[in-house]
Amino acid sequence: MLPWHLPLLQAEGWKWCRPNWTRFKGGDRLPAHVDRSYRPHATTMQDLRWKSEDCQVTGSNRHMYFRRPVFGGITAQQPAEVQQRAPVGAAQQQQQQLPDQHPYQQPQTEAAQEGHGSQLGNENGDQSCDPGDATTNAIGTQTDMRESEAQTLPWQPECILPSEPSAKQRHLSTKRHCQGPEVLQLQGLTFGGGLPAGLQEVDHIDKLRAKRAFESALPPLNCLELLPLRLKKIEGWETKEWEEREEEIMGLQEERLRLLDQAIACREQAQDERVLEKLEERKSLAMEKLHQRLAGLQKRRNAVLRHLTTSRKKAAQRGKPARTWVQKYADSGSNIYAPLQREGRFPHSRPKGQEIATEAFQPQDLKRLGDLEKSMAGALTFVASKARSKADRLAAKEKKRKALLERLESIYQRLETAKDTAGRGSDEAWPCPLLEADANKRSNKGGLKYA
Fold first, then answer.
1. Of the ranges 64-78, 105-119, 227-241, which one carries the lowest mean pLDDT score?
2. Burial 395-430 (b: 16+ CB within 10 A, else e)
3. What sequence ranges are listed for the domain CFAP91 (predicted)?
């Protein structure tokens, strides 16, 4: 199909050409409804550290399995496979050996048992379950493998007193004047609050025993005749306890005072040690400075001594008189007995056949005198400079007077010039310059202008 504006273009001289269309096919197979800005969550090492590890029975989660079941009197039934594998008479023999109540389990009241039974019946479709039929029993355990950060009070098992104590327990209860084991009388002692026990705890236990023995020996309350005696004994015992308590408080105060004195002494000792360290440090610094000054003085002293020694040697050499012939002949080590050689010859010996003239040259006639003048340099015999006469020189006072006269002459000349130029000044410095237009106005002095 041709475009609608083709006749218009042909009328204007344009030529229509079919356009070149290019179609591209996308190679992306991602559906259109998927968001292209989606980025999956990148797992980092921090996320891996934050993730909890798998539940390990023998690992860090072992303490989670040391608990009692929800219903202490009811246990899980043994699987059917285990019952099939068990011998025929094993279950009956085990049921005969197991008592109605396990000695390690806490006895439950009738109301609690009824509640548990009704709840179990509702869950299992009103089916009854006999606790004696259980073949396994779960008990609480405690492990020592615990982390220090999670460490709490040590685990204490529940204590259950038997309904009928043994003969030994009855004898001990009568001896210690208590019902049941004596350990139950020490429930106030906890870990960190008296346990592990020390000397004070042992004294406290002895006092509790004595108090129980005293209470058991008191007269009964139903006897009115012995009631005053009972009150008197109780008051005496309380007075004794208060006195012991006061002694204990005094002992604690004395112990605190002793510890306080010890702490003060340690603090003073530490302070004295710090003061001594500071003194030693300052002393060492002062001694170091003193040694440096002494070393500088010693160095300067050595230098001065060297200069003095050198000066004395030079002075001794300058002032040393020459030796006479008698001293030379008296000295066996002088050059007279053993002359020194220099470059293969004796410098003090006279050469053979050459006489050295020691007399001065004295010309006998005029010719020799002329030869002597010719042999000498001209500067020695001819003086080219001429001394200046003293008449040309001026004294200092005369120079000052001459300069003053020249200055006065210049001032006088300027004053004369100023009179000739309307009496105001001339040149560039006296007393101030005038304009060229105003220099010719001698009559009108008020109309002058400054430059």
1. 105-119
2. eeeeeeeeeeeeeeeeeeebeeebeeebebbbeeee
3. 141-306
